[in-house]
Amino acid sequence: MTIPSTRRDFLKLSALGLAATAAADLVPSLQPSAAAADTPGDIAVWVTNPQVQCAQAAGIAWRQAVAPSPAGAITLYPEKTFQEILGFGGAFTDGACYMLNQLPAAAREQLLHEMFHPSRMGLNVCRVCMGSSDYSTSVYSYDDGPADPELKRFSIAHDREYILPVLRQARQENPELFLFGTPWSPPGWMKSGGSMLGGSMRRRYLAIYAQYFVKFLQEYAKEGVPVQCVTPQNEVDTDQDGRMPACIFPQEYEMEFVKFLGPLLRKNQMATKIWILDHNYNLWGRAVCELDDPEMRQYANAVAWHGYVGKPELMSQAHALHPDAGMHWTEGGPDYTNPDYHTDWSKWGKVFTAVLRNWCRSITAWNLALDEKGRPNLGPFPCGGVVSIDSQSKAIEYSGQYWALAQFSRFIRRGARRFDSQSAAGGVEHVAVVNPDGSRAVVITNPGAERTVSLRLNWLQADVNLKPDSLTTLVWA
Q: 280, 308 in Cβ contact below 8 A?
């Protein structure tokens, strides 16, 4: 036996041992185990590729596994579980609600049914904007004008025209709709510069701003649209050069604001959750520092992430330091100018898989709907909607992100729990869950050429044909 003489030697030997253990774990036992005493049912298959979108394909039967495992096999370990899933959705921006409201009533009803009804896509975690974002018809807050520290002017009248009606209709399709509210900017009078376009928050208004949040929540509840969660500020680390509603919200300000808002929510007997940051992966260190404060963590113990800068693995670094904190992916969307806007499902399949494999409990895309030119748009970015609604004909077209979302959201239910899946070879991405009813689902993204992979579960094997540029969802009981 080799005895390590230094800490470095110890770490080397430990790493070798872990690598050997991991390699051994990729070879499942070919003997039936207690957990696998009953053979599962046949596998239902749903596929998106250049020929079909979220279409059911021929089922697959399990069979006795062969040894050794075929190269590239995906091995499942349902006994090793991770985070519980809250759900999937998109953002009800002012622009998105405006475009949905432009549809004829029957077409709008059909689209919202397809997107939200539990028997269809089942979208159930969505974002609402507290005032205007860059995807709005105008720049507005709920208290515009000169300084109003008593919030006497506060009003959500703007939202009553088409935002609240669309939200109520979506909730009718899915009564379990979880909404979280996010401001892109406080009212201009609360900021340096006095404008909603760029600038930074003024510290002396933080307590009043907490009252502003409570009023928003109360008024939305009166309208039959309860909002279950808020984030203090969209993209806390940028003012977007003053080109759109935005606000610098320093780390110490966000922490102080949560300490105002949290007690105020409790005083008003509100169970509203608070998610901090609402910005990119690369700001994981800021999220960790905020969570290090035990007083703040009494009121906010979850982080909202955007996927524009950095890598999703940085969320796992934050999780390692605060494993009890929730993780949620709250923004990311396509560019309508990209030639593959309608067909980039493999790109989004890889993104969503990485997000789930790095501890996120929910995935919320950006604008649910925009027109063919990414409008309404006050800002500088060429984002496209999850769906596109033609500004003239009102024809609906579907993005690649829509079909990727469908491959996840239709089959991964609220309360599902991710479990471990491993493969010794690259080329495909995969994520596995067990749903509350005991059914299991695996989503496999194959961005390359056609191939066959073996799915291994204890002493069973199923061979899955993966079409080129495809997402394949496998479901069995």
A: yes
Contact call for residues 284 and 318 (beta carbons, < 8 A):
yes
- Across the chain, mean pLDDT equals 93
Q: Which residue has the tokens 């800490």?
A: 7
Residue matched to tokens 């890889």: 350
Residue 63 pLDDT: 96
Query: Each residue of 401-458: pLDDT tens digit?
Result: 999 999 999 999 999 999 999 998 788 999 999 999 999 999 999 999 999 999 999 9
The set of residues, in sequence order, having a beta carbon less than 8 Å from that of 336 and lying 6+ positions away, is 370, 372, 373, 374, 382, 383, 384, 385, 388
Which parts of 107-159 are beta strand (E)?
A: 125-129
From residue 175, alpha-carbon distances to 124, 265, 407, 421 in Å are 9, 23, 21, 32
Which residues, 6 or more positions from 463, have their beta carbon under 8 angstroms from its beta carbon?
Answer: 60, 452, 453, 454, 455
CA-to-CA separations, 1 to 4, 9, 13, 15, 338, in angstroms, rounded: 10, 13, 11, 16, 59
Report pLDDT for 72. Answer: 87
Which amino acid type is present at position 40? P
